[in-house]
Amino acid sequence: MTALASAAMASPAVAADAPVVVPLQGLEPVIPMDAPTVASGVPLPVPGGPTGFQQGQAGLLPDVDLPQVPFTSTLPETVLAAPLPEVIEGSEPGKALFTTPRSEMAAATPGATVGNPVVAPRGDRLGLPDLAVPEVGVVAPMLRGALDSQLGLAQPTA
């Protein structure tokens, strides 16, 4: 069990991604221009150690938690290039480009908490703890990162 916990908490030095190139050459007979190209990747998330475990206070039982599990990843660079149609005969207008550079992302799974059903003893119960209705809560998931997308034109290459 300890080995599994330490393996889950260890993070690799570099987050990898799996490259993806979408084959759109089959569209060329249908559309009156060259097919666009789409190149990106699938990020491979790296899990971190669970968070949210709590200690009991004053000898009481701790709250029961379903901890959040953090994930980090790098979104790969994405390039979408589509050739522009020839408007003026003999001209080469270039390509429309949409790009997003590599960017770091962090996320966390949802979590839950159930309040302690045992409360501190009162004086009229001979020092025995009282029972209470547990309080249930949900910890919202989290996603943090920034994308810097760019849209522009590229001149034709000779």
Descriptive notes:
The chain is mainly beta and 158 residues long. Helices cover 5% and strands 40% of the residues. The protein contains 1 helix and 14 strands, in the order αββββββββββββββ. It has one helix spanning 2-9, and strands at 17-22, 37-43, 46-47, 64-66, 70-75, 78-83, 95-100, 103-108, 111-114, 118-119, 130-131, 136-139, 142-145, 150-154. The strands form 4 sheets. Strands 1-2-6-7-14 form a 5-stranded antiparallel β-sheet, with no helix packed on it. A 4-stranded antiparallel β-sheet has the order 3-5-8-13, with no helix packed on it. It has a 3-stranded antiparallel β-sheet with strand order 4-9-12, with no helix packed on it. The radius of gyration is 27 Å and the shape is rod-shaped. Residues 1-13 have low confidence and may be disordered.
Distance between the termini: 61 Å
Count of individual helical segments: 1
* Structural class by sheet pairing and helices: mainly beta
Spatial order of the strands forming the largest sheet: 1-2-6-7-14
Identify the notable features of this structure and list them briefly:
disordered N terminus; 40% strand; five-stranded antiparallel sheet; 14 strands; 158 residues; mainly beta
